[in-house]
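Lab meeting minutes (informal)
Scribe: AK
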Amino acid sequence: QVQLVESGGGLVQAGGSLRLSCAASGRTFSNYAMNWFRQAPGKEREFVAAIRWTGSDTYYADSVKGRFTISRDNAKNTIFLQMNNLKTEDTAVYYCQASSRGLNYWGRGTQVTVSS
């Protein structure tokens, strides 16, 4: 059974930092892109960052470039999202996604709340 489990969310003041984790299990994800999405109240889910299990390419939404860093630990099948200089507009539920050729798996999400 495929599982993506996010953790690390919480309440932080603007300017602060959080580190999200996504632990993947249940299958081999080597051919999957691993993505972070977020969904704020009343808004559509939006792409945040992406990484593959091999290589060094990473991708970011313009709104988080220079503040967020996506990384991975292949040995632990875990993806991370380091979020620095958080802004109130970063408040959302953050979801981990594994994607390959139209097949997508989602985690349940972790809440990030940034207070002013």
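Next up, CB showed the second protein from the same session:
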Amino acid sequence: QVQLVESGGGLVQPGGSLRLSCVASGINFNIYDMGWYRQAPGKERELVATITSSGVAKYPDYVEGRGTISRDNNKKAVNLQMNSLQSEDTAVYYCNANRYDRGWIDYWGQGAQVTVSS
């Protein structure tokens, strides 16, 4: 059974930072690309950061410079650090594992709520 379990969400002050972790089980973690997505109320899910199985990280423009994704293959974990948070960063943050093998294979975590508020 595949599980992606996020941790580290919660209440963050404006201007503060978040650090999320996701631990995977039930998959060969080393061969999966990993990512973080988020979904705010009333909005579509959007990409926050991705990191390939070989460790190449990519960010959309709104995260570039204030976010860092990293992975620890020994711990089967992917982490997200994001700084300078504002209210618009309030969302449920989801961990994703994916790879292509004659079709896309996609797994999601249950999500971690991050609320940016004073």
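CB comment: The radius of gyration is 14 Å.
No objections, moving on.
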